[in-house]
Amino acid sequence: xxxxxxxxxxxxxxxxxxxxLNRAEIEGIRGLSAAEICRLSQLYRLVSxxxxxAKTRRLGSSIVNYLQGLTLRSYSQIYQSPHxxxxxxxxxxxxxxxxxxxxxxxxxxxxxxxxxxxxxxIAWGYGWRxxxxxxxxxxxxxxxRVEKEGKLWTGAIVGIEPLASSAIMTNNLSxxxxxxxxxILGGLGTLYILWNNGLHIGAIAALVAQHxxxxxxxxxxxxxxxxxxxAIFLAGAAGLLLGxxxxxxxxxxxxxxxxxxxxxxAQLMFGIVPLLVIAGIIEGFWSPNPLIPNAVKYLxxxxxxxxxxxxxxxxxxxxxxxxxx
Length: 325
Fold this sequence. Notes:
Number of domains: 2
Strand content: under 5%
Keywords: Membrane, Transmembrane, Transmembrane helix
Number of helices: 12
Protein name: Tll1058 protein
Distance between the termini: 26 Å
Pfam family, one: SpoIIM
InterPro entries: SpoIIM-like
């Protein structure tokens, strides 16, 4: 089978099915005409066959994940009652859809991570040699507390945990949304936010290391950072997807590429929100708690990061009917 020729021949009906599904999910199945519902059912059967063929021929996870998403969405629209559709789709998304989108867009996440790490490494290096550089990046109150008192600033959260947790969630969600929205500027806004965050983390890391506070600092960061930092990198991936569609749409018209990548970006953002909410709760109540040993905080962070990695990299394969394979 000529794979490229097959893809070119089959892709129009995949896009047609996706357009019908988008309408059905927004307007409800009753928003489609009788002819469109019949066409939806026909396309569902055809795409199900394409999915089986793609798996048999091992055409790649991105194609398989895309077709699997289409078939499950189609099944939900055609066979499920209106009352059960919403809950089932949300359950499927977090069980299978979000990991599939993350796997499909991993190269963008890797690029976001790379930008962040390069900036952090530069700030780390300069932070050891140039105090004026630290003054530019580290808030004055944090700089003063670390240098003059030899203490971290994280204890200020203790006693106001609910308020702090709420403020942290709001801030993290704002940063994630801004990171995604920065993609509209051709990805430049996204890259700037990732770079700026990397510089700040690197500078603070250098500061605490200089004053022998690295161990308690990273013990504080580890539990919530295990979820918060990956979520920011995924938000960066979403922003870069938008930027890529605007600057390099490829063989698609720019509007079609933006719609396609915008759907992926929206799915990433939908999955990021719970991660940031959980991270905010941990940062408000667990990370700064002086009664919890630092070693336990490191272990909890490692456990959360490992669990997130397994969840995103090893999803359970299911058929469109929900049966385990």
